User: Fold this.
Amino acid sequence: MNHQQSDTNGLPPKTCTIDRLVTVPEDVEKVLKGQKTATRRNGRYADIGEVMTLEGQDFVVEKVYSQSLGELTDEHARQEGFANVEEYKQSILSMHPGMPWLPQMRVWVHEFRRA
Assistant:
């Protein structure tokens, strides 16, 4: 499976805008400190090459792909700024009370780097 998509061909339309990609203050802080290099959302918030600006700093989206929660590894959790999958899971569930954590549930991964 190739996650290195060079364009947005094959990706469905965005469901939200890039300015909504990272909004939680602790997450913004993690991105600015370089501790968070990816964010997972239930929709697609950005195109590859699109720029997200946080507190005047630009971050360019490098990869956008779909992933199931069951595929998450501790390495993925570290991209999100957490120690491991369990810590990430607890954070997500605390932000979305009542949300089930289903291994087959798919999310959109947005990987980015400082521009």
Remarks:
- The chain has one domain: 18-114.
